[in-house]
Amino acid sequence: MAATNKKYSKPVYLVDGNRTPFLKARGRPGPFKHTDLGIYAARSLLLRMPFAATEFDEVIFGSTMPGPDEANIARIVALRLGCGDQVPAYTVHRNCASGMQALDNAAMSIASGRSDLVLAGGIEAMSQAPLLFHPKMVNWLADWWGAKSIGQKFKVLGRFSPRLLAPVIALLKGLTDPVVGLNMGQTAEQIAYRFGITRAQMDQFALESHLKLHQAQQDNELSEVVPIFDSRGKVYDLDDGVRPDSTLEKLGRLRPAFDKPYGLVTPGNSAQITDGAAALVLASEAAVKKYDLPILARLVSTEWAALSPAEMGLGPAHAIAPLLKSQRLKVGDIDYWEINEAFAAQVLAVLAALNDKDYCKQQLGLRSAVGEIPPERLNIHGGGVSLGHPVGASGARIVLHLAKVLEQKNASTGVASLCIGGGQGGAMLIERSAS
Predict the structure, then answer these.
(1) Per the residue annotation, which of 15, 23, 59, 96 is the catalytic one?
(2) Which one of 39, 192, 419, 428 is the catalytic residue?
(3) What pLDDT, in 10s, does the model give residues 102-152?
(4) If pLDDT is split at 50, 70 and 90, which confidence band does 435 have?
(5) What is the Cα–Cα distance from 302 to 424, expressed in whole angstroms?
(6) Are 344 and 205 in contact (CB under 8 A)?
(7) What CATH number corresponds to the domain at position 382?
């Protein structure tokens, strides 16, 4: 593993950002489509900027499953925000890290000198994921539409069976790896077994996530969250999946969700299916000077890594290790961490892997363990288990919130990281000048 410095070649600044509340999916399509969420996340942000929306050089959003009428969702959002016909926009897709990929693309564009101002982030309305026809039903419909005579139609009709109408749930398909045939929960079970993570540890982690998020809401420490309104005027101003009344006893009663009946991963210690969006303004040094922009943080470097899809949850360990090495940093040099909580088991396994000498030597090519991340420095306001994981948005959310935490704590250095379906990991280093 080479220790080459991978910093962005020119300064890339995070000026400001917003996100919507993350709204738990409740068995039916939620009140907001992808476009709605993207606009809500960005609109009040742009109103705070001293420049017009038409001054952006690019708009980049991450998303994994926008609706059929929302192709290239970034362009739709850009046009509806008033960025104008002349501002190009595109959408990126790297599964759970799509939002972080959008930020990385924006940062590389700024560092290369191609752009000075970029609106970037992530959007996902998971509750809006479509129900699909089975391929057999699609073929039957093709034959029906192709039948020309009454006789041909009766012949096709004779092959119809109600079983053909059984829907294919696109969301479940999307959360299953087609190469190894495991859904994301099953991969969490595998790495929990590998590192001996117990059900009690998972439930304790989940409980703490909910309690931390609830306390953060009570203390108004989520300043990046902006209220949104549905078509009936109902306001949503908080992440609504939080369970402040959660207890270990209640969590312990939940049954395994992915490896029945003996598994350890349950709905209570897994990230929630959620709708949400995050939008950030990134700027070059020249743009900061031209518009006298505030600086929330600087994006320093991003690392991408890959591993077996069967153990995709360990992706953060594989990205964090080379990121720290390339920047000649140790765990103790990082003030705060955001590791996306896809599953409690997954975060706990990442922490175990980074502190396991044998794993770091054999899998990460290091001479020693990366080290132990202090729990009081990790996800201090909760994470995906309590507030949800809208897959296209989470990568942008954790970077934005990490920057806000550094500001609140007058700290200087942070790392945001995610596991990625398909067997990858991403990690981003950010800095700010502590006063």
Answers:
(1) 96
(2) 419
(3) 999 999 999 999 999 999 999 999 998 877 888 898 998 898 899 989 999
(4) low
(5) 13
(6) yes
(7) 3.40.47.10
Let me know if 419 is a catalytic residue.
yes
Q: What is the tally of structural domains in the chain?
A: 1
3-class DSSP state of 384: helix
Structural contact between residues 323 and 303, judged by C-beta atoms closer than 8 angstroms: yes
Give the pLDDT mean for 283-303.
Answer: 98
Answer whether residue 314 is part of any domain: yes
Helices (H), 69-183: 73-80, 98-111, 135-146, 150-157, 170-174
User: Residue 398's closest CA among 424, 417, 385, 425?
Assistant: 417
Other Cβ atoms less than 10 A from the Cβ of 163: the count is 9
Question: How many Cβ atoms sit within 10 Å of the Cβ of residue 47?
Answer: 8
Cβ 307 vs Cβ 318: under 8 Å: yes
Please tell me the distance from the alpha carbon of residue 87 to that of residue 372, in angstroms, as a whole number.
Answer: 44
**Is residue 96 among the annotated active site residues?**
yes
Whether residue 336 lies inside any domain: the answer is yes
- The torsion region of residue 5 among left (phi > 0), alpha (psi -120 to 50) and beta comes to beta
In a domain, 358, yes or no: yes
On whether residue 311 sits in a domain, the answer given is yes
Assess whether the previous peptide bond of 261 is cis (omega < 30° from 0): yes
Domain of 387?
184-220+300-431
Which residue has 């995070």 as its token pair? 14
- pLDDT single digits (tens) 197-256: 999 999 999 999 999 999 999 999 999 999 999 999 999 999 999 999 999 999 999 999
Asked if 22 and 274 count as a contact pair (C-beta separation under 8 A), the reply is yes
**71, 96 contact by CB (below 8 A):** no
Reported pTM: 0.94
Tokens 């899809």 -> residue? 309
Contacting residues for 289 by C-beta, under 8 A, at least 6 apart = none
Q: Residue 320 in contact with residue 360, Cβ under 8 Å? A: no
Q: What is the dihedral of CA 279, 334, 412, 110, to 10 degrees?
A: -50
**Cα gap 353→369, rounded to integer Å:** 8
Contact 324, 433 (CB under 8 A): no
Task: Select from 76, 42, 74 the least CA-distant residue to 58.
Answer: 74
* Mean pLDDT to the nearest integer, 294-315: 97
Look over the chain and give the mean of its residue pLDDT values, rounded to a whole number.
94
Residue 141, token pair as written in the block: 């419909």
DSSP-derived letter for residue 259 is S
